[in-house]
């Protein structure tokens, strides 16, 4: 006897599909439309084809901004992933310390991005900011407004403070899911602390680490609000990432066609790099 399928449940998904179409697909099609057209004003558009894409791909401005993005994302991953693992390993697994640590770890994630930028903008000021004033008092020539190196350090430390907690919480979730039997067997075998981490904890955290790396890469590569509030992309263009350059191009210069083409290229780069990260890490996990 054949099985009867009830497809009425799809009607419950229909509102979600309509919402996604309205909030994502329609704006994306609008961007695609702008990317292949040009205008001289008065809402009169004419076909430009791949002109804007060619201009972006041959622009030093675009490649310099993408280089800054890649460097920033690499630094963030190198710092936040090991630091998050280290903190998660040292968090208590039982007792009253567990909720206290979890709440403390979650607090930075609850602060809106523009508020984080404002906090660090004030925090780093050399006249009234605690960080800037203290560093100056200690003899350091710190000024994130004028010095490119100081601006980079400030943006990196700000991101580490804001987002390392996400890595910590993901790794901690992976650690607490490990059965006690693994630790008991390791203790009987006389395994060292490093051996326990290498052969028990790290393999059990592979899945959550994959999620952590993907999330932190995508977030760091698309970062906009925090550095824009703190440095505005300066001094000069030293902290002008692709997202900031895109906004300057679209709103500051009102070059909608070029900005639309740049946003599509930006989107494809994020998708491609995320796919590479996912493929490499899942292939490594499968080999193990």
Tags for this entry?
two-stranded antiparallel ribbon; 13 helices; MetI-like fold; 288 residues
Structural class: mainly alpha
Biggest β-sheet strands, sense, barrel:
2 strands, antiparallel
Largest beta sheet: what is the strand line-up? 1-2
Distance between the termini: 44 Å
Give the % helix.
Answer: over 70%
The proportion of residues in beta strands is under 5%
If classified by CATH, what would the architecture be?
A: Orthogonal Bundle
Which spans of ≥5 residues are poorly predicted at pLDDT below 50?
none
Find the CATH topology.
MetI-like fold
CATH class value: Mainly Alpha
Shape: globular
Number of domains: 1
Instruction: Work out the radius of gyration.
Output: 24 Å
**What oligomeric state best describes the polypeptide chains here?**
single chain
Which superfamily, in CATH terms, is the homologous superfamily?
MetI-like
Number of helices: 13
Mean pLDDT: 86
Order of helices and strands: HEEHHHHHHHHHHHH
Strands, count = 2
Transmembrane segments: 12-36, 70-89, 101-123, 160-183, 208-225, 264-284
Protein name: Glycerol transport system permease protein
Pfam families: BPD_transp_1
Domain ABC transmembrane type-1: 66-277
